[in-house]
Amino acid sequence: MDVVRSNVRKLNGTVGVTSVVGKGSIFTIKLPLTLAIIDALLMKTAGQVFALPGTAVEETLLVTEENLSHLTRRKAINLRGEVLGVSKLRELLRFNEPEEGVDADTELPVVVVSTGGRRMGLVVDSFMRRQEMVIKPLAPYLASLPGISGASVMGDGGVVLILDPAELMTLAIEEAL
Fold first, then answer.
1. What is the C-alpha separation between 94 and 122, in angstroms, rounded?
2. Domain of 156?
3. How many domains does the chain have?
4. Exposure letters 105-137 (e unless 16+ CB within 10 A, then b)
5. Residue 51 maps to which CATH number?
6. pLDDT tens-digit profile of 90-126?
7. In terms of pTM, does the model score above 0.85?
8. Within this chain, do residues 12 and 69 fall inside the same structural domain, yes or no?
């Protein structure tokens, strides 16, 4: 119980215990409303770990570079008869470091994201795992980062940025223009 209490305190919450002899105990945990727990897909891009809310993830798949088609300035894949626009997450988030060369037969990890009735594919470097995480709001000076909606602290103390699917969709549309 001490471990629970110390972890709840780290989140600026409280733990209360009320006991009645012969009837039992009631444990009350109070957490700030600014915290929310989400199921998220963890993935890596440009050496950084990012989380995408599980509610926005339709599916994950591997696509070869030769299966990517070019439509105007945007790439697309044929996903079971539907043309699906695809963007590289590293480009949407404006990472300037060069990407390693990719062979035509190399499989690229793609996350199919859906939000607001629209769908798109995000090419990432690798998938990691699904995990429940606590969302923490960004500090005011970081709140204007494009495509980022919050952050979470992992068990090892590392910070993971949580992606905003709707804003990523908007960035992808702007990139195509």
1. 14
2. 36-176
3. 2
4. eeebbbbbbebeeeebbbbbbeeeeebebebbe
5. 2.40.50.180
6. 989 888 766 665 555 688 899 999 988 899 999 999 9
7. no
8. no
